[in-house]
Design goal:
Elements lengths: L1 E8 L3 E10 L2 E11 L3 E3 L2 E3 L2 H16 L7 E6 L4 E4 L5 E3 L12 H6 L2 H8 L8 H10 L3 H5 L2 E4 H10 L4 E2 H4 L5 E2 L4 E2 L1 H6 L10 E2 L3 E5 L2 H4 L9 E4 L4 H6 L8 E6 L2 E8 L6 H5 L3 E5 L3 E9 L2 H12 L6 H10 L20 H11 L8 H27 L5 E5 L6 H11 L2 E4 L4 H14 L8 H8 L3 E3 L4 H15 L2
Parallel strand pairs: 1-6, 6-15, 10-13, 16-20, 20-21
Antiparallel strand pairs: 1-2, 2-3, 4-5, 7-8, 7-9, 11-12, 14-15, 16-17, 17-19, 18-19, 21-22
Helix pairs in contact: 13-15, 15-16, 15-19
């Protein structure tokens, strides 16, 4: 039996998960989950990385008191955010959160000429990325940036806290928009054109690289941690999730949750004008692969509705709501989920009703109707993205493979099959943690090849397959949706 740990860091919570691998099966157990968010200190929003590291270390130490030795630990997180260290390895300030105002206005000032940078970096700058934050720091004379000798993304930083070693892993680095994506190297000319020092960036390491052994103070007194290593997993959370998906022809994946990260895995980046105009981004996937993706507003809208209903004293559980929506006759209305109307928190059910009224549709009143209105629109957006992928790559999508928590929403899965006309496969709901651990086990030699990953994931949670239904009705729905998306 082999025992590994994964630490999955999200923007609203982080988790420590234990995995035990035996005879081709990987069993996972969540050891702890912590809610967190940016904290306001000194007029800036920061991540409390010290508190996070303490919690992670304590959970791992307690778990390791029993059972088998822990082979390794891997960290993954969302992209963009980073810590700055001085020459002695001291963190100069807690990492700024991507929602901090330091990046405000940077797009308009420095990154609007997308057509000039896109062929090299392979991604757009219209949403906040590391490049915005660093340029904001440079423009405001942010003191830690002046003293910095190392830049470590969130998983790299946690690996440093646990080992004392500094590494930049490739998949997380590609979210920065500071790489030449085709060469998979830092674009030092671009970095220096922003007034930044290229010396703070380390040579990139591929997923599966050993960072180092645990610091003595973390392993002390726990024999099962004596030889524990930290392995650079596929450190971007979507990269970890996608390694669990089998290589299927004409397949688009969706990492489904608050956001829907939808795209394809490719052997080379797509950097055409069409890809840029569709706001597609090329990001690194392990072992020389790429993800061509677009972020789509996902189940956040349903979550926001549930949050509002709870404030009003209504006990609405999303899984039950999805089950009811699947049984009821379809409500006729839908929304364009990426419309500006839904970009901010608030009374989301009322925003949806107002949108439907403005676009000449029937207004949903009951929570089931609201759920149907959201999900039908989201499923149609998946089809629209499939058509954009066809325009960019020349290949028609025939299978949609869904991983992450959203795969449990069977109503969404069926609507996706209906809207796209594709076979839909629901994969592992904890694909990020599963992928993190599989990369570690591959690095240790417990797993012989990447091709085994999807089989192991499927033994833990069986795939579910959905086939298109009601095609004529959904063709009519999609024709109307295209009008909504163009408003």
């Amino acid at each position: 039996m082999s025992r590994v740990m994964a630490v999955d860091i999200g923007a609203s919570s982080y988790r420590v998960i234990e995995g035990t691998y035996r005879e081709g099966r990987l069993a996972m157990k969540v050891l702890a989950r912590y809610k967190h968010g940016p904290i306001l200190e000194g007029g800036r929003y920061h991540w409390d990385v010290y508190g996070m590291a303490r919690n992670m270390a304590e959970v791992i130490r307690q778990a390791a008191m029993k059972g088998e030795p822990v082979l390794s630990i891997g960290f993954d997180s969302f992209g963009t955010d980073f810590g700055l260290l001085d020459e002695s390895g001291q963190l100069l300030d807690k990492p700024l959160a991507y929602r901090d105002s330091i990046s405000d206005g940077m797009y308009e000032k420095y990154f609007r000429e997308e057509e000039r940078r896109y062929p090299a970096v392979g991604g757009t700058f219209w949403t906040t990325c590391t490049a915005h934050i660093l340029k904001g720091m440079e423009e405001t004379d942010y003191e830690p940036l002046k003293k910095a000798r190392h830049l470590l993304f969130m998983p790299d930083l946690m690996a440093f806290f646990f080992t004392g070693k500094t590494v930049n892993e490739t998949t997380i680095a590609t979210t920065s928009r500071l790489l030449n994506i085709g060469k998979r190297e830092w674009d030092y000319a671009f970095i220096e054109s922003l007034g930044l020092s290229g010396s703070i960036f380390h040579p990139l390491k591929e997923a599966g690289t050993m960072v180092g052994r645990l610091r003595e103070e973390i392993a002390a007194g726990v024999p099962n941690l004596k030889d524990t290593a930290v392995i650079a997993a596929a450190c971007h959370d979507t990269a970890s999730a996608v390694v669990t998906i089998p290589e299927l022809p004409a397949c688009s994946f969706i990492s489904s949750g608050t956001w829907s990260v939808k795209g394809i895995v490719a052997d080379a980046p797509y950097v055409s004008t069409k890809a840029r105009d569709y706001k597609m981004c090329n990001e690194g996937q392990p072992w020389g692969k790429y993800r061509l993706i677009r972020n789509i507003t996902g189940l956040w809208l349903v979550e926001e509705c549930a949050r509002y209903w709870k404030q009003k004293g209504m006990d609405i559980q999303i899984p039950e709501l999805a089950r009811q929506a699947q049984k009821e006759a379809a409500f006729p209305s839908m929304i364009y989920t990426d419309a500006p109307d839904f970009a901010r928190q608030g009374d989301m059910p009322e925003k949806i009703r107002a949108y439907c009224q403005r676009t000449g549709q029937e207004m949903p009143e009951h929570p089931v109707e609201v759920m149907q209105t959201i999900i039908q629109g989201l499923a149609c957006e998946y089809r629209r993205h499939n058509e954009q992928l066809l325009d960019v790559t020349g290949e028609r999508i025939r299978t949609v493979y869904i991983v992450g928590g959203g795969r449990n929403n069977r109503y969404l899965n069926q609507c996706t099959a209906n809207a796209t006309g594709c076979r839909v496969i629901a994969g592992h709901p904890e694909a990020t943690a599963m992928g993190n651990m599989l990369v570690q086990l591959l690095a240790h030699g417990d797993i012989e090849s990447v091709e085994a990953f999807s089989k192991i994931a499927g033994r833990d949670v069986a795939e579910e397959i959905y086939k298109p239904e009601d095609r004529q009705e959904w063709e009519r729905k999609y024709a109307f949706y295209q009008q909504l998306a163009e408003i």
